[in-house]
Amino acid sequence: MRIHERAPELRMFGAGIWLWENGLRSLRLIGAEEQAVRNAKRIKQWAVVDEHGDEMFRRAFTDDDKMVLPLRADLYQALIDAALAAGVEIVTSSTAVAADPEGALILDDGSRLRADLVVAADGAFSKVRDSLMLTDKVSYLREGYIRLLVPQQPGDEDAVITESWHGTRRFLYCPCSDEFHYVALSCLVDDRTGRGVPVDKESWAASFPAFSDIIARIGEDGRWDRGMTVRCRSWSEGKVVLVGDAAHAQAPNLGQGANMTFTNAVSLAAAVSGANDIPAALRAWEQRERPLTDHVQRWSHGYGWLVSMWPEHLAEVRTKFLQFATSIPWVDAQLNRAARHIPVGDHG
């Protein structure tokens, strides 16, 4: 097995990451969970509050329904180490530009590398996906995100995620490790002050005074990423298959993008192991996994809509709506459908 990485070295961008129960179970199946979460914070609750501090939503976590929040760098290294332990060869400075459905990866230097299976995990702007005409729709959202780390200080909350809404802005505070907290700032594309990097700390502190101390610790780093979604007419063509953002990029509002990638990947491995007909196995895998992935993508988009599209002068109505909606068991089941999903191959 071989991984082709376009960068000259393996590197990670990002801050912290939400690992829900489904993601943790998937990492456990490949032997990466323990290392990934070794220094992570165990989250007890996720609270969503409005600009007045009124609670709109609160979600608790248990031993059987966990949320753990590691640094992305720790997760990334755990995945690399698990791959190397499994005998995977990693080739850097190797850029894939297309694939042949018969089973070949095509590099930018014209090389054609034969394979029993080509797995394309080349992101939302996947060249492999486009080479096979698998793209159905790529959509940009009205909102975007700045995600970064701030230093931890004594007395900081270390077990509760707090997501605060003010108009079309959101501030997300996530305990992450003994050294850092993960914070995310979300706003509309036309909020030029809000999307600026370095972060305009005065502006954001004015929107979220309860977090002014945390905001004051923000450094000069970070970057603005516009939200987007990807939909495909199919996740595979012949012996080529898409995973991750290449197949189902989504807004990060529910924190399930990476977790669904892990869940789908372990299911994919089970589907093709020992299969005599790879294309048929890929079709069956997609038929089994895609409904849940599509569901998460839709609900994540809808969650963002409540911020980006809801009229600001009706903010109090939004609070009452969320308080009511999230108290309905059916809504809870839909929001947490992925988190409570048992990955294929997990037998307890």
TrEMBL record:
Gene3D superfamilies according to UniProt: D-Amino Acid Oxidase, subunit A, domain 2, FAD/NAD(P)-binding domain
Organism: Carbonactinospora thermoautotrophica
Entries under InterPro entries matching the protein: FAD-bd, FAD-dep_Monooxygenase_BioMet, FAD/NAD-bd_sf
GO molecular function: FAD binding; monooxygenase activity
Domain of life: Bacteria
Keywords: Monooxygenase, Oxidoreductase
Domain FAD-binding per the UniProt entry, residue ranges: 26-271
Protein known as: FAD dependent oxidoreductase
One Pfam family named in its UniProt record: FAD_binding_3
